[in-house]
Every structure is written in structure tokens, then in C-alpha cells.
Amino acid sequence: MTEPAVDDAPARTRLSGTEVRIAIGFVAAVFAGFGLAAVYASGGQPQVEGALLFVTLAGIGYGIAAWGKYLFPNGPYEQEREQLTSTPAEREQLARSFERGSEDLSRRRFLRRLLTAAGAALGVALLFPIRSLGPNPDDVLEHTSWHKGARVVDADGKPVPVTALAVGGVVTVFPEGFAGDATSQTLLIHASDQPVVTAPGRETWSPAGYLAYSKVCTHAGCPVGLYEHRTNQLLCPCHQSLFNVLEGARVVFGPAPRALPQLPLAVNADGYLIAQADYDEAVGPSFWDR
Fold first, then answer.
1. How far apart are CA 111 and CA 20, in angstroms?
2. Which CATH architecture has domain 140-290?
3. I want to staple 118 with a disulfide (CB 3.0 to 4.6 A). Which of 29, 64, 187, 261 is the partner?
């Protein structure tokens, strides 16, 4: 009986063509990922960033797809065969096959490391856009620039006297020194010729019938600027929330989840409207303070 031939050739140590292509894909992804991070950190260029992101994702995608298609077994394979005994030559050949398999595992380990490096490069590049979210707001949304004694001024920074508006009049105002401040913008309404008590504890908040409410809608932050004196209602033009100004800007219609915060007003010795204090609750959409 003829003994099976024994493969005396040295085990292959080089990467196969497929493995080389996979490695090239991962290496390209590594360089493109770090290049994307560098371009973004240096000021950014949308076209270059898009191209580098494409190369990064394409390199990783090609490498993973090719690895799964060409390097993993495509079985399962089954073959019925009778019980056989192995000759010494066959056992030696099996041992050499295991040795070649260990080298294959070593090459796969090299590709896994390249894949990890490519993923790390992409992760680094994706960290930089976090900077675009801006600074931490801290408690800026819980407090505004209004404070005790702050004079009420219009958009031009001019103080507003108690005689400025006729009953039914409305104007956007700010605390003195902060004209144009988005979180402090307030709608000043001359709702009546008599003080208006909008809720218990607010007996002194409406000198001469003036009411002041945050102009930032509690639904989505749109400016609430439409006032209808006949019905004493404020309308948010974005999503049609309605607020009753005589009842503390209570929501009477629409998606706004809560009333507009009211600013406590007073009149100083010179006849100008001033704030008694800041708003007693956060202004704007409710999720800001939830």
C-alpha cells in the first residue's frame, strides 16, 4: 500500500492577496480617521471631511465584509466515511497542518489589530464634533439677567416710564444693560388701568396695571409676541399656544405645557418701571428645568 505524500514545503508565512487587501482597507481607514480629526480640529472643510469620512467607513466596511466572505469557513461540510486508522505519515501531516493553522491565526490577529486601530481612529474623529455642541449652559437657563431694581428698557436700551403705554399696549423689554438678551426678553403689557392680581402672592406685581411675562414660549422656545387685548390672550405664532394674561399666562389652548413665567414689576421714585426680582422659575421650554 502506497503511503500518502508528506508535504515537506515550509509553512507559508506571507499574507495572502485577500489578507493584504483587507489590511490595506484597514490601514486606509486608520489614516483617513486621524486625517478627519486633524481637519476638523484645524477649522474644518466640509468637502474634505466628507471624503475622509467616506474613506474611513469604506475601508472598515470593505475589510469586515471581505474578512467574513473569504477568510471564514463557508461550510458546513459533511462527509460520511468509514472508520479509519491513521498511519504515522498521516499523523505527521496533520501536525504540520496544525502548525500552518497557528500561522493563519497569527495573521488573523494582525488583521484584528488593524481593525481595532481603524475603529479607534474613527472614534477619535467622532469625538471632535462634540465641541460643536457649545459650552455647558450650567444654570444659565434657570436665571436671567433680571434682578432687583433693574430698570425696564426697550430694544434701544431706553428706560420705560410708567406712562409709556396706553391700556392695551405691548412692547418687548429687557433689563437695563442687557438689551437684546435672548433669555431675558420680556413682553410688557399694559393690561388694565388698575393693578391686576394674577395669582395669590402676586398682589404687588402689577403696578398701574402693567404685566410682564417671559417672551420665550414654554413649548419650543419661540417668541410669544401676539397680544389680543379684547380677550386678554397671548398667542405663540409657532404652534398656536394661547395664554391668558389675567390669569398668570395660564395655557388655554395649544401644546405649551405650562404658563409663561411672570416678572414682578414695581415703579421707582423717578417713575420708571423696574423689576422687583428675577423670574421665580426657569424661562423657556419645560425640558430646560426638568
1. 9
2. 3-layer Sandwich (2.102)
3. 29
